[in-house]
Amino acid sequence: MSEEKKEEIVPVSTEFEVVDQVDDQSIVELMTGQTIQDYVYSFKQGGRVVEGLTLAGINEAANRRGGIQVEDVEYEERENSWIATVKAVDTITGSSRWGACEQAKMNGSRPDPYAFPKAIHKAQRNAIKQLLPVPVIREVLNFYLNRKAGGGNIKQPQKLQSGDNISNAQKATFAIANQLTEQLEKAGVSKADLWNYMKCKCSVESKNDISERQWTELSAEFKAAETTPTLFEDLCKRVKQLTTAKDESEVPPSEEIQETETLYDTDNDEKESKTDEAESKAAPF
Predict the structure, then answer these.
(1) pLDDT single digits (tens) 94-115
(2) CB contact burial 193-207 (16+ within 10 A = b; e otherwise)
(3) How many Å apart are CA 30 and CA 74, to the nearest integer?
(4) Half-sphere exposure for 86 (CA within 13 Å, toward CB)
(5) Bridge-partner residues for 83, per DSSP?
(6) Rounded percentage of the chain residues whose pLDDT exceeds 90
(7) Do the beta carbons of residue 206 and residue 276 sit within 8 Å?
(8) Any residues with CB less than 8 A from the CB of 70 and at least 6 apart, and which?
(9) More reliable by pLDDT, 233 or 46
(10) Is 70 exposed, middle or buried (0-12, 13-18, 19+ CB in 10 A)?
(11) What whole-number distance in Å separates Cα of residue 218 and Cα of residue 239?
């Protein structure tokens, strides 16, 4: 029982790490002119089979779907990482999505010469994947999983998933930040400190003012911190520096040290007005 519970706690992180390793190899193969082998991933975890498309598989699905193009590629070099942000647009429907990735410059104890292209390609992957209709993903996945058996015809359904872009990006950010909470507190970073960092980074006072792109960038930053110790330390350093600067530059009014909402409670629309008020005073988590 204890093993099963442990598996349930970290399925997203485990899957992310496996896919990231496969995509790292695909990007190196692409950059060095090799033939990319892995279009899908499949592994067992907690008694279930986890399957999905790799970076190469997502690009293949996008090519078959057609009409998806990448725009607004931006990047930033940090001391120990590259962070890239990409906008993908579906020219057929007019929909667009943001994708981001923060990639460490070190691969273990050695410098990674492919860190920059990895950041760019993964950011593109993260943006494009959100525009792919589920049936297209499923058909491409089934085709490559069954390829050795000699089967699989890829269809081209045209219907896209519906969904609130900002809400999904926000929930993803909150989910990752929630997983980091205990680790951050041990490092001396409180929830209020992290929220202050998010507000200053996005130049807002309420979570409702954060754009889809900004949520996506925050999500990539927190995911990188969650999976790479060096980038976790960098995040803590940035948050602490900003907190210190804020404390030195102003005296917070007494209202700011008030009610603290439950972290990442974005599902209950009835709480929105109260949440906005609480956000102006303290962390919305």
Answers:
(1) 999 999 999 999 998 899 999 9
(2) bbbbbbbebbeeeeb
(3) 21
(4) 25
(5) 76, 102
(6) 46
(7) yes
(8) 86, 87, 88, 89, 124, 127, 128
(9) 233
(10) middle
(11) 13
Q: Is the dihedral of CA 249, 284, 192, 208 positive or negative?
A: negative
Q: What is the pLDDT of residues 18-38, one digit of tens each?
A: 777 778 777 877 777 776 567
- Label residue 276 left, alpha or beta by phi (over 0 means left) and psi (-120 to 50 means alpha): alpha
Tokens of 14: 């485990």
For the stretch 127-183, pLDDT in tens is 999 999 988 888 888 888 887 445 544 443 333 343 467 788 888 899 999 999 999
Q: Where do we find the tokens 């997203």? A: 12
Q: What DSSP element (H or E) covers 82? A: strand 81-90
> Residue 128 in contact with residue 62, Cβ under 8 Å?
yes
> Rounded to whole angstroms, how far apart are CA atoms 142 and 43?
15
What are 112-139's pLDDT values in tens digits?
999 999 999 999 999 999 999 988 888 8
Nearest-angstrom CA–CA distance, 130 and 136: 12
The residue whose two tokens read 């007494």 is: 254
